[in-house]
Every structure is written in C-alpha cells, then in structure tokens.
C-alpha cells in the first residue's frame, strides 16, 4: 500500500485518522476495566478520575464519530 | 483453595509470595498448562526457560517479551510507550497541523495530552495490579464476541500503522533522493529476510533522537510567543472539515492504541507490582507529558517556519522547520529522524499486534481460523515468530 503512487503525507495522515477512530473504542475498554473493583481492588478508579476519564473518552469518541460520519457521507457522495 | 479465590485476589496473593513458588501455585489449571508448556518446549524454546530470574511468565513468553522490551530496558515503560507515538505518522500529522493551522491546534493538543496521561496511567495501573496485558484482560473480562471486536479494532489500527511506518521509510529515503519504490521494497525485503536486526535497531533509535532538535528549533525559530500561549490556553475549535479530520488524526497518532498495549505489557513483564507502582505512575505520566511537549514543539516549529501555507505537501517541506537548528542540513536531519522513528516503529508495532492476536486466538480455535491470514501479513514483521513457531506462541499465551 505504501508503494502506491501519490502523496505519502496524505497516506500517513489517513492512517492516523484510522487510528483516531479506533482510539476511543480501546480507551472505552481500558476505562471499563479500570473501573472494576473486582480487577483492581483498592487501585480502582476514583470517583473524580472516573468522571474525568469518561468525559475524555466521550469527547474523543464524539470527534471520531463526527469524522467517521463525514467520511462515510463523503464516500457516498452526499457531502 | 486457590481456585476459590477470585482471579485478582489470587494474583495479589501470588504477588506476595515468592515468585518461584507463585509460578507453580499460579495455575489452578496446571494440568492443562503443563501440556501447553510441553508443546512450546518441544518446539525448541526450553533453553530459555532455565535461564533468567524468577518470573511469573513461562520461558518462551519471557523470551519474546524480552525481545520486545529488551532494547529499551534502561528506560521506563512510560517514557518509551509515549514517545513511540512520535513515529512517521506522528511527525507527518504534527507537521501538517503546524503547516495548515499554525498554532491553532495547540489547544487540541492540550486536551489530547490529558487523554494520553489518563490512558497511559490506567494502562500502567492495570498492568501493575493484575500482572497481565490489556488483551488478556479484555479476553477474561468480556465475552468472546466483545473481545474479538476489540482485537479486530486493534488489528485494523495496527495494519494502518505498519503501512504508515513503511510510508515513513519511503518518505525519508525520498529526501535523500532514493525512489520510494526502491526504498520501501528494500526495507520490506530487509525486514523479512534479516528478521532480527539488533544492531540496526540501535542505529534507528539513535537516528530518531534527531527529533530532539525540534525544541531547539522552536527557541531559535522565534515563533510568535503571544499567539503560541494564547492558542494553547484558550479553548477554540474550528468547525471545518479539515480541522476535524486533523484533530482526529492528532488524537489517533498521540493516543495510539498500541501504546496502551505496550504500557500495560511492559509494566506486567518487568514485574512492576503494586509496591513499585507509585514510581511507575510518575514514569507513565511524565513520559506522556514529555512526548507531547516534543509533539507540540514539532507543531510550533513547523508553524513558525511554514505556518499558514496550506496543507503539507511533502516531507521536504516539513523538514524546513529544522532550518533554524541545522541550516542547510535540515533535510538530512529530518530524514534521519524520520527514517529512525519509522524503522523502529515498523519493528515494534507488528510485534505488538502479534501479541494481541496470539492472545486472542488463544481463546478458541475457531477464532484462530478466522485470523488465519494474519500470520501471512504479520510474517513481514521482523522478529516475529515464524510460522513454525506460531503454534507455540498460541499455546503459551493461553494460560497466562
């Protein structure tokens, strides 16, 4: 794929966008795991930390969803 | 009695025991584990099992893990994990952001730093308190289907990353006047045939230090400090398509999933437990902040040099950001850094993917069939267990 003619910079950016769409999903998993007292005992996420982390995952997810919708609409030729 | 305790309790208990004894007591499923070990040892890995200090991992696993971690043994996992984000894709993204939006993305970068610190800290904590990597945790704690979904996501992201690392190698060589068709083909060939390239790895690590020139370039490049500070502190987003796209690219390249995988795995493998965790937390947080300061330096230096000139067109253009430091040698310096960072990451990312996959397919045979093409693709990874050794990787991963 990297051999394809075209702009390497654009290719690099696009792969990072792909990563950015996956990031909130993985962060969600990590957050759920770190929220489980059965797993971490006393080291489980505190109340404030949990809220802050959830807000972060939500914000990142929102941006990713927005861009993904844009991309899909772009492929469909709508936007 | 051990079977009656919850898994995490068991691990706490084991952490308190002598590790040697723990290794024996660890597995309530010792009978099955025994057969797995038999498979892996029969595969010619037993030599390593006898060496090394006390550890909860089996010999074969330790060998592989050590390969992943070994090179960076002197540095903390947090520093390595976070700075691995400054690879080809990272450099391209930060430079594009600086070129296209000047300093305006710096605020997004602050948010991303918070996200990165949180993600790395949680990953390190999970690694320290459970002694396991993220994929095995996901596998244990979620249903098979959900776990498979997570692994599929990781696979997609990492395939993208590998492509980007080779694109980075190609871009670096183009700076030195070598056609990408030649350089990428040679790079893939070298990685496939040479397999382990210990010494080359060190060279690449040294080369990637070239990016430490960016903070110097920031100071020498005399950016508009007022704007820099204002754009960093005051919240603002632009509701344009490109801004959103680059913001997501910024998130993707900074909070890369494999960095969290690496963080948790490295902490677990080094035997960092709850007692050592306070120090590890500092490492994880400081590493994340340091990595993002470098990232912000790349944005600022690029913005000062070519900010507002539209989308970044080429690596050569990005290299001009280093002119204040290196003058006419800026292109060479940038090329060296890009080559080092890309080649290094091209070696590490597929390995992280291989771990994730191996852990996942350890769950059930049917899943392993679904991913059966993976070894083909991943076969291009350096130091990846060859097809012959693949089964042993699966076997040893299923009891950890």
Oligomer: heterodimer
Rg of chain B, Å, rounded: 22 Å
What CATH calls the topology of chain B is: Amino acid/polyamine transporter I
Radius of gyration of chain A from CA coordinates: 17 Å
The ordered H/E elements of chain A are: HHH
Distance between the termini of chain A: 27 Å
Strand fraction band of chain B? under 5%
CATH level 4 superfamily of chain B: Amino acid/polyamine transporter I
Helix proportion of chain B: over 70%
* Structural class designation of chain A: mainly alpha
Number of strands of chain A: 0
Give the overall shape of chain B, derived from the CA principal axes. Answer: globular
| CATH first level of chain B | Mainly Alpha
Précis, in short:
Chain A is mainly alpha-helical and 79 residues long.
Explain what you see.
The complex is a heterodimer of chains A (79) and B (400). Chain A is mostly helical and 79 residues long. Helix content of chain A is 77%, strand content 0%. Chain A has 3 helices and no strands. Chain A is elongated. In chain B, helix 8 packs antiparallel against helix 9 (144-175) and helix 11 packs across helix 19. Chain B starts with 6 loop residues before the first helix and ends with a helix. The interface between A and B is large, with 46 and 69 residues.
């Amino acid at each position: 794929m990297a051999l394809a003619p075209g702009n390497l910079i654009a290719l690099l950016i696009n792969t990072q966008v792909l990563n950015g769409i996956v990031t909130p999903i993985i962060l969600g998993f990590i957050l759920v795991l770190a929220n489980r007292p059965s797993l971490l005992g006393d080291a489980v996420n505190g109340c404030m930390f949990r809220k802050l982390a959830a807000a972060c995952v939500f914000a990142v997810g929102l941006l990713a969803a927005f861009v993904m919708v844009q991309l899909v609409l772009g492929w469909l030729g709508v936007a | 009695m051990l079977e009656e305790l919850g898994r995490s309790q068991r691990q706490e208990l084991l952490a308190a025991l002598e590790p040697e004894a723990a290794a024996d007591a660890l597995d309530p499923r010792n009978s099955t584990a025994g057969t797995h070990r038999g498979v892996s040892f029969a595969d010619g890995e037993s030599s390593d099992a006898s060496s090394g200090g006390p550890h909860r991992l089996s010999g074969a696993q330790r060998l592989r893990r050590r390969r992943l971690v070994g090179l960076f043994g002197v540095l903390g996992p947090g520093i390595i994990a976070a700075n691995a984000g400054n690879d080809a894709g990272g450099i391209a993204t930060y430079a594009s952001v600086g070129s296209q939006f000047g300093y305006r993305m710096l605020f997004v970068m602050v948010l991303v730093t918070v996200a990165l610190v949180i993600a790395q800290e949680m990953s390190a904590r999970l690694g320290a308190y459970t002694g396991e990597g993220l994929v095995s945790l996901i596998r244990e704690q979620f249903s098979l289907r959900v776990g498979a979904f997570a692994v599929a996501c990781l696979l997609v992201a990492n395939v993208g990353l590998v492509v980007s690392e080779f694109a980075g190698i190609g871009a670096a060589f183009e700076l030195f006047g070598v056609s990408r068709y030649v350089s990428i083909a040679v790079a893939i060939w070298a990685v496939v045939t040479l397999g382990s390239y210990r010494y080359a790895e060190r060279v690449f690590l040294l080369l990637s230090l070239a990016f430490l020139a960016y903070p110097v370039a920031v100071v020498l490049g005399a950016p508009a400090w007022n704007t820099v500070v204002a754009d960093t502190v005051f919240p603002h987003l632009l509701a344009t398509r490109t801004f959103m796209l680059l913001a997501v690219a910024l998130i993707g390249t900074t909070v890369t999933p494999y960095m969290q995988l690496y963080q948790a795995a490295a902490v677990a493998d080094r035997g960092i437990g709850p007692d050592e965790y306070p120090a590890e937390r500092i490492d994880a947080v400081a590493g994340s902040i340091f990595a993002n300061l470098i990232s912000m330096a790349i944005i600022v230096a690029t913005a000062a040099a070519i900010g507002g000139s539209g989308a970044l067109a080429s690596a050569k253009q990005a290299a001009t950001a280093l002119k204040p430091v290196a003058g006419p040698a800026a292109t060479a310096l940038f090329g060296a850094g890009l080559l080092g960072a890309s080649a290094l990451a091209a070696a590490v990312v597929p390995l992280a993917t291989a771990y994730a996959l191996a852990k996942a397919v350890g769950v059930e045979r049917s899943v392993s069939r679904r991913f059966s093409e993976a070894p083909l693709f991943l076969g291009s990874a350096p130091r990846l267990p060859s097809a012959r050794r693949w089964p042993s990787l699966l076997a040893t991963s299923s009891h950890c």
